Structures are given as C-alpha cells and as structure tokens.
C-alpha cells in the first residue's frame, strides 16, 4: 500500500509540474499580447521541453487535457 501511495504522490507531483509549466507558458505569451493560438503553441512547446521523448501529437493532446477546464480569458 505504501508503494502505491508513493507512486500516486509522484504522479500527482508530475501532473502538477506539467500543469504549472503549461499554464505559465500560456499566460506569459498571452500577457505579451499574443493571441490564444500562439499561446497554445507556446504551452505545447514548453510541455515538450519537459518531455522530449513525446510526439507533438501526444504533447498537443496532453496540453489540451491540462487546459480543457480553464477559463483561458481569465489567464490572459
């Protein structure tokens, strides 16, 4: 049981780090005056820097999942 909790904790920490990376990249781009699409590309690029072994397609899907429930206008 302890091993499962440790693995779950690590997974939550990894997801939190990914979420922070993605939202930071998105927000910085939007605050610099870029539109939503360019900010989304920046978020995908930031995600791929953390996960260089992942394909662009999979990175795009992961970023979409991380950002799907966010109010992107509130982040800008």
Brief overview:
By secondary structure, this protein is mostly helical.
* Overall spatial form: globular
Rg (C-alpha, Å): 14 Å
Alpha carbon gap, first and last residue: 42 Å
Number of helices: 4
Largest sheet, strands/sense/barrel: none
Number of domains: 1
The SS-based structural class is: mainly alpha
Q: Which percent band covers the strand fraction?
A: under 5%
Order of helices and strands: HHHH
Average pLDDT number: 85
Low-pLDDT parts are 3-8
Helix content: over 70%
Number of strands: 0
Keywords:
76 residues, mainly alpha
Report on the architecture of this protein.
This protein has 76 residues and is mainly α. It has one domain. It is built from four helices and no strands. It has helices spanning 2-31, 36-50, 56-67, 72-75. The termini are far apart.
List the helices and strands and how they pair.
Elements: H1 2-31, H2 36-50, H3 56-67, H4 72-75
Helix pairs in contact: 1-2, 2-3
